[in-house]
Specification:
Layout lengths: L2 H4 E5 L6 H12 L2 E4 H12 L8 H8 L4 E4 L6 E4 L2 E2 L7 H10 L3 H17 L2 E5 L2 H5 L5 E6 L2 H9 L10 H17 L12 E4 L5 H14 L8
Length: about 230
């Protein structure tokens, strides 16, 4: 597989607009979009709170039969786990926190890295997550890293209709900072911008403005060979 031609990566912390931008960009290029955070959340929902403390052999036995797949492209891309579509049940802060803790575990990351690369071998992708540029697809042609302040990201999450766990702003800011610390400081594949990624601060930008920056960068690098 020539990942240089087949993958565009979008990394960054929660609440910077990765999912919306990845879906929209994939729709314009007419390729699939992969929400890798949803894969971690699916495992977190499957295993439950506290599962990060499971013994290695227990974790291995519980995830080995999970199978991820994609259907469609752009905004209509649907991620499946064991042939069941993933929905709003994974969009809570409780699931998100469990996912961040499980993401510290090498076995979980290796399992999902294999699954993500398998999906990419079957379809061109816009892949969003936290280590797409640095670990999973290091030779992707176009790499982006999105960021914004915790306060702005908390406000966005609070007003997100897909957020299934409503809480107050102060609590949400604290949760986002805690997740950031987990993601940025973990010993395995920490959240950071790749050396060759274009870093975009989305704090004061609209989705359309960020999308234009990304499209300009893709054109500057020769375009993208997606599906027609």
């Amino acid at each position: 597989m020539d990942e240089t031609l087949n993958v565009i990566t979008i990394d960054g912390p929660a609440g910077v607009g990765k999912t919306t931008l990845a879906r929209t960009l994939a729709a314009k290029i007419k390729i699939a979009f992969l929400d890798t955070g949803a894969m971690f959340r699916a495992i977190a929902l499957h295993l439950g709170p506290g599962s990060e403390k499971f013994a290695h052999n227990v974790l291995e036995s519980k995830v080995k039969d999970l199978n991820f797949s994609l259907q469609g492209f752009g905004e209509k891309t649907q991620l499946f786990c064991n042939n069941r579509p993933l929905g709003l049940e994974i969009r809570t802060e409780t699931v998100a926190m469990t996912a961040s803790k499980l993401a510290q575990i090498g076995l979980i990351r290796e399992f999902l890295a294999t699954a993500q690369r398998k999906i990419a071998s079957q379809s061109p992708l816009v892949a969003e997550g936290r280590d797409m540029s640095t670990v999973i697809f290091p030779t992707a042609r176009c790499k982006f890293f999105l960021d914004a302040s915790p306060e702005i990201r908390a406000n966005r999450r609070l007003n997100d209709p897909h957020n299934q766990e409503k809480t107050d702003l102060a609590t949400l800011i604290a949760q986002i900072k805690e997740r950031d610390a987990l993601d940025r400081n973990r010993p395995i594949a920490p959240l950071k911008a790749a050396d060759d990624a274009l870093v975009i601060d989305t704090s004061n930008l609209t989705i359309d403005a960020v999308l234009k920056i990304m499209e300009d960068e893709i054109r500057a690098k020769g375009g993208f060979n997606g599906q027609n």
